[in-house]
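Methods, example record. To illustrate the input and output format used throughout this study, we show the complete record for Ribonuclease 3. The sequence lines were provided to the predictor; the line carrying structure tokens was produced by it.
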Amino acid sequence: MQFGGFISRIFLLQKKNKNTPRVQSPLEMKLSVILGVPITQIEWYKEAFSLRNSGKKSRAKNYERLEFLGDSILGSIISCYLYEHYPRENEGFLTQMKSKIVNRKNLNKVGEDLQLTRLIINQNANALGENIHGNLLEALIGAIYLDKGYDMCKSIVLTKLLPPETIATLEHKIISYKGLLLEWSQKHKHILQYETQEEILPNSKINSFKAFVLIDGEKVANATDSSKKKAEEKAAQRAFYGLNKKIKIDERTPNPSVR
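The corresponding predicted structure is encoded as:
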């Protein structure tokens, strides 16, 4: 074969390979469906869905750094969205709305609805914590930002992950009953207190906490949960609905009922 013919065959082979579409991995295909765009740098997403190994000395990449980045990017995107779409609302409303959107409970729900834990690469690396869905969502946003840039990341977040209709449903959602009770008690000059005690359960290694809500020294509600914080929040929720049913302390709930 002449040298010129050999070079021509190499050129044709390279051209053919260039035009042949690259075979996507299962992770790429799943992410493309979720995000609505093709993946460019899959390595970022592999990191976003890698759990931390249990070994203390392990330096393998995991989602935690991308979670940190995604948290900041998401905060920026949501802040800009709220500023643009609620031009007549004050700083207090915007701050509360942002808290409702980026709080852990809401992000966990979004991540769970997207079934992000199914994308985890090393399922047996570590036990899944209660906030894993929200953590993975933030890591995913960090990966999108690094892969696509800020503008495309913003577009994906507001069309696929947290669209306007989802954000709108949070306008009247209460995220902290303790905060709501405190605001009401301060406004109407009531003394709000919590009494919380740890309870030792028989034949159990896990203790529970029982919290009481006191208004002007009178116990109005109580609840038990696995931590002091959860018990007080649950008790505050019960107190809120109980008081709201009697004396209408919040106009946003026309037909309250004790939960």
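Annotations derived from this record:
The chain is about 55% helix and 10% strand.
The CA atoms of residues 40 and 147 lie 6 Å apart.
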